[in-house]
Design goal:
The protein has two domains: 86 residues, Disulphide bond isomerase, DsbC/G, N-terminal (Nuclear Transport Factor 2, Chain: A, Roll); 142 residues, 3-Layer(aba) Sandwich (Glutaredoxin). It has nine helices and eleven strands. Helix 5 packs antiparallel against helix 6.
């Protein structure tokens, strides 16, 4: 006859053993990766749903590795039977974590009266469609969308677009300065501590190929301008709310 105490003790021992084994594997992977890629700083190393394959998250990026860290795979892990992409949901979470790490205090935010959704927009002050999006900012706010701007001057550091971004950030009233710059008006040239380089690095890590690049609060990437009404419906579907509720009453 089995003793309940012995059964529980055996189960506890097994769990501890598994935890120690998993921790040892994680340490082995981290050591192997550090040796081959010294500057790599993983946010997490966890077992994937495929036996023997481990998921490594670095900022907003994700890749897979063998248990010894000697082999790396980049791409999507697909559950064929379920016809499900197992990688994208994890990437979405990594993108949002990276954005949260930057922090709202390092973004320029336009807030709606009735807040439903958050949208992160990588923008270039001199980009035509970026200007079109901002010229319709009230429409996005009417949809209940809070727009968080990050700078992505495509011409790079030292370019006029970069300098404008810095000047906007250093302005006393950043939202007003951004609106002015988006209209093609001159903004007083200023220098100060700014997050433009940090924004640019994150945009590149997210795979930005152009602007505007939109990232939803769930972590989906939308490459390009999306009209406010269409975006409201998309965000409603993504967040599991009826599309009719996405459009704010006017």
């Amino acid at each position: 006859m089995f003793s309940p105490v012995r059964v529980l003790a055996a189960a506890a021992t097994l769990l501890v053993s598994q935890a120690v084994s998993a921790d040892a594997t994680t340490q082995a992977i981290e050591a192997a990766l550090k040796q081959s890629m010294p500057t790599l700083k993983p946010e997490s190393i966890t077992p994937s749903k495929m036996p023997g394959l481990y998921e490594v998250i670095v900022g907003p990026k994700l890749f897979y590795t063998s248990a010894d860290g000697k082999y790396v795979i980049q791409g999507s892990l697909i559950d064929v039977a379920a016809q499900e992409d197992l990688t994208e949901p994890r990437l979405m979470g990594a993108r949002i974590a990276a954005l949260k790490k930057v922090g709202d205090n390092k973004m320029i935010t336009f807030k709606p009266k009735s807040h439903k959704y958050d949208l992160y927009v990588f923008t270039d002050i001199d980009c035509g469609y970026c200007r079109k999006l901002h010229s319709e900012i009230d429409q996005y706010l009417n949809e209940g969308i809070a727009v968080h701007y990050l700078f992505f001057p495509r011409a790079g550091e030292g370019s006029p677009s970069w300098d404008k971004a810095v000047s906007v950030w250093c302005a006393k009233d950043r939202p007003a300065a951004l609106t002015k710059a988006k209209k093609g008006e001159n903004v007083e040239s200023k220098q100060c501590d700014n997050p433009v380089k940090e924004h640019m690095e994150l945009g590149n890590a997210l795979g930005a190929q152009g602007t505007p690049m939109l990232v939803t609060q769930k972590g989906s990437v939308l490459p390009g301008y999306v009209p406010a009404a269409q975006l409201g419906k998309l965000l409603a579907r993504e967040n599991g709310t009826p599309a009719a509720q996405a459009t704010a009453k006017k």
